[in-house]
Design goal:
By secondary structure, the chain is an alpha/beta fold. It has 10 helices and 8 strands. β3, α3 and β4 form a beta-alpha-beta unit. The longest helix is centred in the middle third of the chain and has 19 residues. Bound molecules: 6-hydroxymethylpterin-diphosphate. The site of 6-hydroxymethylpterin-diphosphate has 21 residues, from β1 and β5.
């Protein structure tokens, strides 16, 4: 899954793809590089990011989804917590709703997902985006994330989302201490996979990688991002959400070829 942020302030690529032509070109480039899914977002979720009103988010995301749909057969996902944005994106050609709040943000999130009939990614986050990194706490991070995701999958199915449409995501970096929580979660991914749903992993360029490498900035975290993607593949995740598609596809191809030899 290639990341396409039409935002001003995303932590790694903010501002680069706010221009519609640049965003379209980047999306087509990632599809050509081997992305099976493009995840289009119009609002950053990083701590301190400026909230984006729904109409502005729709104006950023929908023309981009429509333009990509017209030029490529790649699966399109919308990264939003707002049901009205998800509805507009699905009408424009998206078939997946990636929600970092696991359909908890709005009272009608669950019903909207059921009504749209699209695939949904339910991600774990402790707290709210603005404050989630202040003091995250877990007694057993893997068990607590797994229990949360299982409960959200149950809630989605109770609202009418089909079981086969549900994906789970441990939410690396969302209300998690950089190393004390993210690393055990990456080491315990097999227990999230064991819940029986396809799992998406988003570790690309995240801060824990910098924390393990002398505070390397976001644009110098490719090696660590690939290491995390391979750890995910080894644990059985179905997709990795990444900025650097070509390099990740190459790493996964080599890893798969070795595993099969
Ligand atoms: N991470 C980010 C955003 N959305 N969605 C899922 N399912 N999983 C993730 O790990 C995830 C996500 C944060 O990364 P990015 O989009 O690069 O930054 P920002 O939120 O600042 O736009």
């Amino acid at each position: 899954m290639g990341i396409l942020n039409a935002t001003a302030d995303s932590f790694s690529d903010g501002g680069r793809f706010l221009d519609p032509a640049a965003a379209l070109a980047q999306g087509l480039r990632m599809a050509n590089e081997g992305a099976d899914i493009l995840d289009v977002g119009g609002e950053s979720t990083r701590p301190g990011a400026t909230p984006v009103p729904a109409d502005e988010e729709i104006a950023r995301v929908v023309p981009l989804v429509a333009a990509l749909r017209a030029r490529s057969s790649v699966t399109l996902s919308v990264d939003t917590m707002k049901p009205e944005v998800a509805r507009a994106a699905v009408a424009a050609g998206a078939t997946m709703w990636n929600d970092v709040t696991a359909l908890r943000h709005a009272p009608d999130s669950l019903d909207t997902a059921a009504g749209l009939g699209c695939e949904v990614v339910l991600m774990h986050m402790q707290g709210e985006p603005g404050t989630m990194q202040a003091a995250p706490h877990y007694d057993d991070v893997v068990a607590e994330v797994a229990a949360f995701l299982a409960a959200r999958a149950e809630a989605a199915m109770a609202a009418g989302v089909a079981r086969e449409k549900i994906w789970l995501d441990p939410g690396i970096g969302f209300g998690k201490h950089m190393t004390r929580h993210n690393l055990p979660l990456l080491a315990g991914l097999d227990r999230i996979v064991a819940l029986g749903f396809p799992v998406l992993l988003g570790a690309s360029r995240k801060r824990f990688i910098g924390a393990l490498d002398g505070d390397a900035p976001a644009d110098a975290r490719l090696g660590g991002s690939i290491a995390a993607a391979l750890a995910g593949a080894a644990a059985g995740v179905v997709a990795v959400r990444v900025h650097d598609v070509r390099e990740t596809v190459q790493a996964l191809s080599v890893w798969t070829a070795i595993a099969q030899a």
